[in-house]
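Re: weekly structure request thread

Next one in the queue (184 aa):
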Amino acid sequence: MGYVLCMPQPGSYGPNWDRLFETAAGQSGYVTTKQAAEAGYSTHLLRKHIHGGRVTRPQRGIYRLVHFPATEHEELVTAWLWSEQAGVISHQTALSLHGLSDVLPSQVHLTLPAAWRKRRFRVPPDVLLHHADVAPEDRAWFLLALMKKRGFLDRMPVSRATNVGGHPLSVALAIAHGRPRRVR
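Done, posted below.
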């Protein structure tokens, strides 16, 4: 993940709360250290807002503006932001999100680009990593988009649509690796 210069950008005129708020609004109230710096907030200033109760720091490099209401899947947002927005929610987590499995995974399954396999970084304890290259057009809703694109849902028996044969991971892996097959 590397270091981020957390100083206001040249030409900016100090911290811009509206810009920070706008960024956070699209991310369930969360921003990264880098995004905060782009809005003029140094880590020192963020710390001041933490002590003042306007901001919390749920994990390293991720901050939450406290006046945003809690959302249903905040753990997914923080995992995605942790991955520098390069990760894709996948496997059991994606199946559960799309209502294709009754299993509630204990960890967020996140697929990172294959090149990230060589990187060394501290993975949050609630995140389970997978590595694969996901095409940009498939990134928005990785699993469901890929399943639809490859006609997998059309071939899936209706009785298995919610449980996916009792083991959603094998189906997600087959889809992620380009081998859609009929579930029996």
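The chain is about 35% helix and 15% strand. The chain has a mean pLDDT of 76.
Next request, please.
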